[in-house]
Write a structure and sequence with these properties.
single chain; about 240 residues; alpha+beta; 4-stranded mixed sheet; about 10% helix; about 30% strand; binds FE2/S2 (inorganic) cluster
Length: about 240
């Protein structure tokens, strides 16, 4: 709910331009942490100054990351929103385990790698009759920033989603030596350049490298293109 006299938190996509973030959405710096090459969590490395409204780069070319500096105009960035607009539930594979059901939508995978923890989300769900595996499965699924994975309780149908504060994390992915997407948490509405609204979700990742094939969402292309925004946590 919006605070009194505060416009609601929202992300609006500009045609062939940046994301305009309004409603004083907190913006933080985070790195994906890993053990033995497997992503295990996130490390918060700082906060950007509070602003009521700000614009975040979508083309990957800005000299003032994560903010837009207008470079998209000079380079003629084409930011067509090519994401499938169908609701998440209409486009996922379903895996039924003994006590959990896993929903998996591969086209929006940010390749953050948290799903590989333990024996992997899929195997954990298959063994969800074991209490510890069930708990691990829920934790692993909820650490997926892109919202590619969602898990429900098989009996009740309840979505087992951990509540998140509304904020945006600018991700770095040090063990892949690349910069990552914008991790949008807590169900912040995202409005297309055509004025329609995307399905509001607790976890989504937005492309900020310009290379995704499912814009505005990240599809992991930043790893193939070796996108780096100059963050000091990445090796030179
Ligand atoms: S940031 Fe991931 S595809 Fe652009």
């Amino acid at each position: 709910m919006a605070e009194p006299n505060q416009p609601p938190k929202k992300i609006t996509i500009m045609k062939d331009g940046p994301y305009v973030v309004s409603g004083s959405v907190p913006l933080v710096k985070e790195s994906i942490v890993s053990e033995g090459g497997i992503s295990t969590g996130y490390e918060k490395r700082g906060e950007y100054p509070e602003r009521k409204t700000y614009t975040l780069c979508r083309c990957g070319q800005t000299k003032t990351p994560p903010y837009c500096d207008g470079t998209h105009v000079r380079t003629g960035f084409k930011g067509d929103e090519t994401a499938d607009r169908a609701p998440f539930s209409k486009r996922c594979k379903v895996l039924e385990g003994p006590t959990l059901v896993l929903y998996d939508r591969q086209d929006i995978c940010a390749r953050a790698g948290h799903c590989q923890q333990r024996t992997g989300a899929w195997t954990l769900v298959k063994h969800s009759h074991e209490a510890d595996k069930r708990e691990e499965a829920i934790g692993v699924v909820n650490s997926c920033p892109a919202g590619r994975l969602v898990v429900k309780d098989k009996d009740s149908g309840e979505v087992l989603e951990m509540p998140l504060e509304k904020e945006i994390a600018v991700l770095q992915h040090p063990h892949k030596e690349v910069s990552g997407p914008l991790y949008v948490r807590g169900g912040i509405p995202i409005v297309s350049a055509d004025g329609s609204e995307y399905e509001t979700r607790n976890r989504v990742t937005l492309c900020r490298c310009g290379a995704s094939k499912v814009k505005p969402f990240c599809d992991g292309s930043h790893i193939n293109t070796h996108f780096r925004d100059g963050d000091e946590s990445l090796k030179k």
